[in-house]
Amino acid sequence: MARILVVDDDPVSRQPLTDVLESAGYEVSTAADGPAAVHAVQAAGPDFVVLEVMMPGLDGFGVLDKIRGRAGEPIPVLMTTAAAEPESVTRAWSSGVDYHLTRPFTDGTVLDLIDGVLGRVGGAAYL
């Protein structure tokens, strides 16, 4: 079973996505801030990370930097944000993010992206 880490300080955003991913058969762990996300990556070694940009403690860019700095196989990272400024998107790509979504988006969109990256089929039912 693939392991997904969902990182978002807002439980209203984090919980529905967690529920959708668990319903799809993924093992999901969560983190509510940057330091907890870094710890979860080190401890759990997820197969995919969904990472919010704006968080307390350490923002998504700081977490992405820590993820990209670790040894081993690269972990695919989807960065999400409510900030649609071109500078934020450019910074995400130049920081090494694999995927980027600006809110609003559906949890089904994230599920379909993860299914595609991890080679699974069947997320469309959640759109």
TrEMBL record:
<keyword id="KW-0805">Transcription regulation</keyword>
<dbReference type="InterPro" id="IPR001789">
    <property type="entry name" value="Sig_transdc_resp-reg_receiver"/>
</dbReference>
<dbReference type="GO" id="GO:0005829">
    <property type="term" value="C:cytosol"/>
</dbReference>
<dbReference type="GO" id="GO:0000156">
    <property type="term" value="F:phosphorelay response regulator activity"/>
</dbReference>
<feature type="domain" description="Response regulatory">
    <location>
        <begin position="3"/>
        <end position="118"/>
    </location>
</feature>
<protein>
    <submittedName>
        <fullName>Response regulator receiver protein</fullName>
    </submittedName>
</protein>
<dbReference type="GO" id="GO:0032993">
    <property type="term" value="C:protein-DNA complex"/>
</dbReference>
<keyword id="KW-0902">Two-component regulatory system</keyword>
<dbReference type="InterPro" id="IPR011006">
    <property type="entry name" value="CheY-like_superfamily"/>
</dbReference>
<dbReference type="GO" id="GO:0000976">
    <property type="term" value="F:transcription cis-regulatory region binding"/>
</dbReference>
<dbReference type="InterPro" id="IPR039420">
    <property type="entry name" value="WalR-like"/>
</dbReference>
<dbReference type="GO" id="GO:0006355">
    <property type="term" value="P:regulation of DNA-templated transcription"/>
</dbReference>
<keyword id="KW-0597">Phosphoprotein</keyword>
<dbReference type="Pfam" id="PF00072">
    <property type="entry name" value="Response_reg"/>
</dbReference>
<keyword id="KW-0804">Transcription</keyword>
<keyword id="KW-0238">DNA-binding</keyword>
